[in-house]
Design brief:
The complex is a heterodimer of chains A (566) and B (99). With 566 residues, chain A is α+β, with helices and mostly antiparallel strands. Chain A is built from 17 helices and 20 strands. Chain A has helices at 15-27, 38-48, 64-75, 91-99, 112-161, 207-226, 231-245, 324-327, 338-348, 355-367, 413-418, 422-429, 439-458, 469-485, 519-524, 527-530, 535-543, and strands at residues 7-11, 31-35, 52-56, 82-86, 104-107, 171-174, 184-190, 196-203, 252-260, 265-271, 276-279, 287-289, 309-312, 318-322, 376-380, 405-412, 490-500, 503-512, 545-550, 555-562. The relative contact order of chain A is 0.07. With 99 residues, chain B is an alpha/beta fold. In chain B, the strands form 2 sheets. A 5-stranded mixed β-sheet of chain B has the order 1-2-4-6-7, covered by helices on one side. In chain B, strands 3-5 form a two-stranded parallel sheet. In chain B, strand 1 (3-7) and strand 2 (13-18) form a beta hairpin. Classes of the chains: A alpha+beta (566), B alpha/beta (99). Chains A and B meet through loops of A and helix 2 of B.
Chain lengths: 566, 99
């Protein structure tokens, strides 16, 4: 019994042989079609699509070789086995049979047993091929489907990711189009005061699971940055959110930084990312920005460490962040590209704008081929007015808020320790529509006044410490130490909004419990001499109207005014 | 077997050895090495581990969670310098006793 019932086409010009074969094949349970020459065979094949063909090599009108070629073309990808009917002695003819697409031979005299065996074997081959083709098509369909889903997900995510300022003139980045599905994440946004928050993240794993966590992370990043929250609060929120939603074995390595071109400082938190680098403008050794923390989403909120590192910057210095694709690139012998090779490339670089090319070339040369999952990001320290933060988008109705009010806050030690009131104050001031065109300056000034009151006033830190890079580190070490130990002191913030003709004005008063400072002496210092530390007060004087200090520097009053609204 | 698990006689200490690459391919094996046990302490022996990727870090977190999270006693021993580098970048020494 045959394994399955087939339709078999028999093409043979000899009537006797044709009849004999037809009888054998149909006796074995198959349906039979017969043709007297190659042309008839091809026509019958096209019409009836038999699954197997027995073909005589030498026939009138069209011979078996040509018929075989045409049948194979008609059959396309499906396997239609062709068994040539021939005598084994014609060696050269056998070769021609194979070349024409023959799969097997049957020699005269015809043996029903051998023919049955051949038909069964060919049928198994035919079905195997059919299964392979079907599975291939199925995989292709799934793959197409998956790509389409990725395309849609990427389009949605691009809208989210490019809400930020990756296109700012001082940022360059290199990211593979589907880096998101490698788990790489690149975000950048301006804070209300014109600083820049940048995040390079890397989720464990690949594909959709890695991409899923990116959405909530991006949302927290943009939301909190826009509202004026600092790195610590943003990090806490990101960590808590990821810890809550991700499975235990998933987390996100991340390097988050706040670049202030106004104050020429960068604040950095690195949890699990490879070293970033601070590249100087004059070719001194790159300074590594080392991972000091566990990745985001690992620790419970109460154990999370949000302490950051602050570094002074000079104009033209650059921050280079990279994903693990760079140092983890391995060659054919499983050797890693590693930090040393990377540092050599960094040190050898002469033209900053060629650096990305040089890194990717070095990786290619090392590995023998390029890879598409490397993310690189470079941010340059520029003059603050070279950057143009986009206007803030307000979510309220656009109705004018009341314009005649005042508020007093007093923040005491316990609050100063762990609470940053700035986002709340800024939120409140956003209600004053007349000030919106100056919101960047307003945020900068308020942040500056608050941190001066806290650091120099309440904590009594000496800004002169910040005269060099080493002192800078020491300054921030002392800041953390004193803040942790703080048990008395206060900062009072007074906000007063009043109408003035068709416009109005805002008066901000900030008072602290510190020792005060010699206002006239500090303000008299020439700009250059103020170096790394005198920037705050100048910023305040430049950005606001009538900055005045009183009570030996313990109290400061600044004013912002606006004309009638258009 | 690329992942070997051995329980101490008193049933308190589980030792897991990972051979070759410790990556996502070992997920199932690594999980079944500890899943049916509740040992008081676990030693992960990486003596014959050549490479470790971020999904291996995830697996270590799963193990830590399984045996008590913050109160767990998980030691990672015999780490090669390459493996130690990877663990150090992620600061896993804050969660595990690594040697």
């Amino acid at each position: 019994m045959p394994e399955s019932r087939l339709t078999v086409l028999i093409a043979e010009d000899g009537a006797v042989d044709r009849l004999l074969l037809a009888r054998i094949v149909s006796k074995q349970g198959h349906a039979v079609l017969t043709a007297e020459n190659g042309e008839q065979a091809v026509a019958l094949f096209a019409e009836r699509r038999p699954q197997l063909v027995l073909l005589d090599a030498l026939m009138p009108v069209m011979d078996g070789f040509e018929a075989a070629r045409q049948i194979k073309v008609l059959a396309g990808e499906a396997l239609v086995p062709i068994i040539f009917l021939t005598s084994l002695s014609e060696e050269e003819a056998l070769v021609r049979c194979l070349e024409a697409g023959g799969d097997d031979f049957l020699a005269k005299p015809y043996s029903p047993v051998i023919l049955a065996a051949k038909i069964n074997a060919m049928d198994r081959l035919r079905r195997l091929q059919a299964t392979v083709l079907e599975q291939r098509d199925q995989i292709a369909r799934h793959h197409h489907h998956l790509l389409n889903e990725q395309r849609v997900a990427k389009a949605v995510f691009d809208k989210v990711a490019h809400a930020g300022c990756l296109s700012a003139s001082n940022i360059r980045y290199l990211q593979s189009p589907y880096a998101l599905f490698n788990g790489d994440l690149l975000l950048a946004a301006f804070t209300p005061s014109g600083d820049m928050h940048v995040l390079l993240g890397d989720f464990t794993g690949h594909g959709l699971p890695a991409a899923v966590g990116a959405m909530p992370l991006a949302e927290v990043f943009y939301g909190m940055t826009a509202k004026g929250y600092g790195l610590s609060e943003t990090l806490r929120e990101m960590n808590a959110k990821l810890k809550r939603i991700l499975p235990v074995d998933m987390f996100c390595c991340a390097l988050l930084l706040n670049l202030s071109c106004q104050r020429r400082t960068v604040e950095i938190w690195n949890g699990g990312m490879p070293d970033g680098y601070l590249l100087s403008a004059n070719g001194t050794e790159p300074l590594p920005l080392v991972s000091r923390h566990l990745p985001l989403g690992v620790l419970a909120p109460e154990r999370f460490d949000d302490s950051t590192q602050v570094l002074p910057l000079a104009l033209g210095e650059r921050l280079l962040l990279l994903s693990d694709g760079v140092v983890d690139t391995s060659d054919d012998n499983d050797r890693l590209f590693g930090v040393e090779r990377l540092c050599k490339v960094l040190s050898a670089n002469r033209q900053p704008d060629l650096l990305f090319g040089e890194i990717t070339q070095a990786l290619e040369a090392f590995r023998g081929r390029s890879r598409d999952d490397v993310s690189l990001l470079e941010i340059t320290v520029v003059e603050p007015d070279e950057l143009l933060p986009p206007p803030l988008i307000y979510s309220d109705s656009g109705q004018s808020a009341p314009l005649d009010w005042s508020l007093q806050f007093e923040f005491r030690a316990e609050t100063l320790k762990r609470f940053n009131p700035l986002p709340y104050l800024l939120q409140l001031l956003q209600e004053i529509h007349g000030l919106r065109s100056q919101s960047g300056a307003l945020h900068s000034v308020l942040s500056e006044l608050y941190s001066n009151a806290l650091e120099h006033g309440v904590l009594g830190l000496d800004s002169a410490l910040k005269r060099d890079a080493q002192g800078f580190g020491e300054y921030y070490r002392q800041r953390n130490e004193r803040l942790q130990a703080l048990c008395s002191g206060y900062i009072r913030v007074g906000l007063c909004v009043e109408p003035q003709g068709p416009g109005g004005r805002l008066i901000i008063e900030v008072e602290d419990s510190g020792k005060g400072f010699n206002v006239s002496k500090v303000l008299a210092r020439p700009l250059l001499e103020q170096g790394l530390y005198g920037r705050g007060l100048n910023l305040v004087r430049r950005l606001s109207r009538r900055a005045q200090w009183a009570d030996e520097g313990r109290r400061v009053r600044v004013e912002f005014a606006w004309e009638a609204l258009a | 077997m690329a992942v070997n698990a051995e329980m101490s006689q008193d049933g308190k200490k589980l030792t897991i050895q990972v051979k070759g690459r410790f990556d996502f391919g070992k997920h199932q094996e690594f999980r079944s090495a500890y899943e049916r046990n509740r040992p008081e302490s676990v030693v992960v022996d990486l003596k014959e581990t050549t490479y470790l990727d971020s999904s291996a870090l995830g697996m270590l977190l799963m193990l830590r969670d399984h045996v008590g999270g913050d109160d767990s006693d998980v030691r990672v021993i015999n780490t090669s310098s390459d493996v130690r580098k990877i663990l150090a970048i992620s600061n896993f020494n804050k969660l595990f006793d690594i040697s």
